Amino acid sequence: MCRARAGDRGLALEFFGQTNHEGDLIGWVHDAWAANAAVIINPGAWMTTSAAIADTLKICREPVIEVHLSNVHRREGFQQGSLVSKTADAVIAGLGYRGYLYAIDAIADLASG
């Protein structure tokens, strides 16, 4: 669905699958930066713990959109503050898989001015 939506909006899409290695995700963000690409990221639990990912996202020149399948604001208090949100241009949460589709639409809209 994401690939089709991106194609419909005139965007190329590259997936970086789920990883348990923070450094792999940071390397991918660096690759996106080098390619002048926007980033849609679901940092999972790293949203509250990874200053390294948040700092890396600061280098991005193109939009960064944080996506969460569930409403992260309903979580336990210690899981609510997102370091990534402080660096993202937008946050989409609680809309399930549709959040990724809306993020693609937002990237396309931002790119078209």
TrEMBL record:
Domain of life from the UniProt record: Bacteria
Associated pathway: Metabolic intermediate biosynthesis; chorismate biosynthesis; chorismate from D-erythrose 4-phosphate and phosphoenolpyruvate: step 3/7
HAMAP family noted in UniProt: AroQ
InterPro entries, A to Z: DHquinase_II (IPR001874), DHquinase_II_sf (IPR036441)
Annotated binding of substrate, by residue: 42, 55, 69-70
GO biological process, one term: chorismate biosynthetic process
Record family assignment: Belongs to the type-II 3-dehydroquinase family.
Catalyzed reactions per annotation: 3-dehydroquinate = 3-dehydroshikimate + H2O
Catalytic residues of the enzyme: 68 (proton donor)
CDD domains recorded: DHQase_II
Pfam families: DHquinase_II
Native species: Pelagibacterium lacus
Subunit record text: Homododecamer.
GO molecular function, one term: 3-dehydroquinate dehydratase activity
Keyword terms of this UniProt record: Amino-acid biosynthesis, Aromatic amino acid biosynthesis, Lyase
Function: Catalyzes a trans-dehydration via an enolate intermediate.
EC numbers, comma separated: 4.2.1.10
Lineage: Bacteria, Pseudomonadati, Pseudomonadota, Alphaproteobacteria, Hyphomicrobiales
Protein name: 3-dehydroquinate dehydratase
Transmembrane segments: none
